[in-house]
Amino acid sequence: MNIENPIGDGTKKENSVPFSPNHRFLEPEKAVKTITDMAIWEKSEAYMEYTGFIATLNEAIKGKPLSVDCKVSPNLIKMMDMLNKIDKLIDNCPPVEQPQRFGNTAFREWLTQVKSNTTIYLQEALDQNLHLTIPEIKAYLEESFGNATRIDYGTGHEMSFIMFLCCLYKIGCLVPEDNVATVFMLFNKYLNIARKLQKTYRMEPAGSHGVWSLDDYQFVPFIWGSSQLVDHPRIYPPAKFLEDEIVEKFSDEYMFLSCIKYIKEVKTGPFAEHSNQLWSISAVGSWSKINQGLIKMYKKEVLSKFPAIQHVLFGSLLPIRRFQMHH
């Protein structure tokens, strides 16, 4: 099924859905069990759908600030309401007094509350005729916020949320007119929740990072955020993103700069040392080069790394089966 036009001829019947009445939704499962399965993943329908989705949204927001006037559909507002409820649950679970610095155990309580509410939240947010999709899509939502055992968060959790968004398109809840608001409202709200969780519960970064990664926690907001900055007259050359004054002035309008602002808040010492990759990116001549480079880097550093992909879930909407070119 093609995301560009989920319902064939473009005639949208009332309450029509882009899947056949006998479609079977599945509880998604892990499918990449060994290193050799990575080749199956990279040729899978899920991989093509996911990377295509990131590229489609990347194109939709090119050169646009967060405050741009964009279409906001009733379905999208309902999803925003759901994220607001998930956000509010953090206030119910204040961090507990504990000896170790990282990984506050109150995070487990919060995630338990989220998981006990996702079905109800999704029933409220989705049209009745889409309720049968909930057992499949809620798994992606529940995996979006971090790991309860390790109290950590990383790019795999971010990926799970983007897969959740991708599923909302595949079931017809969101449509191409929602592309800009999907990034600027839903994803940006998610990003703020993720940061609040990282700070509130002092979450560990998932996976081994060190100086070669872009950021301890996120990746995609740097991709989409650099697309927003293509041809920006003031934030040019890109090295300008290192200047405090630029960060202060533009962080509310551009995700890339909100990421830089967040790094500067949580890390101490010279930027070139704690964020070496971003420091070197600042030397690249144009935002469109940075944008294309980050997409390549994401495929290489995240999507082709077994430790991240072993946790990915596959179902009927994002299947592990081999991608076939449709003629």
Would you write up a description of this structure?
The protein is mainly α. Helices cover 51% and strands 2% of the residues. A two-stranded antiparallel sheet has the order 1-4. It has a two-stranded parallel ribbon with strand order 2-3. The longest helix has 22 residues, at 179-200. The relative contact order is 0.18. Residues 1-14 have low confidence and may be disordered.
Comma- or semicolon-separated keywords:
327 residues; mainly alpha; two-stranded antiparallel ribbon; two-stranded parallel ribbon; 14 helices; 4 strands; 51% helix; disordered N terminus
Sheet-strand content, in percent, reads under 5%
Low-confidence stretches: 1-14
Tertiary shape: globular
Helix fraction, binned, reads 40-55%
Number of strands: 4
Q: Main sheet: which strands, in order across?
A: 1-4
In whole angstroms, how far apart are the ends? 12 Å
Structural class: mainly alpha
Count of alpha/pi helices? 14
Mean pLDDT: 93
Rg calculated over all Cα atoms: 19 Å
> Main β-sheet, in a few words?
2 strands, antiparallel
The H/E string reads EHHHHHEHHEHHHHHHHE
What's the short story on this structure?
This protein is an all-alpha fold. The chain has helices at 38-42, 45-60, 74-92, 106-125, 134-142, 155-170, 179-200, 220-228, 244-250, 255-266, 271-274, 276-281, 287-303, 306-309; strands spanning 29-30, 152-153, 204-205, 313-314.
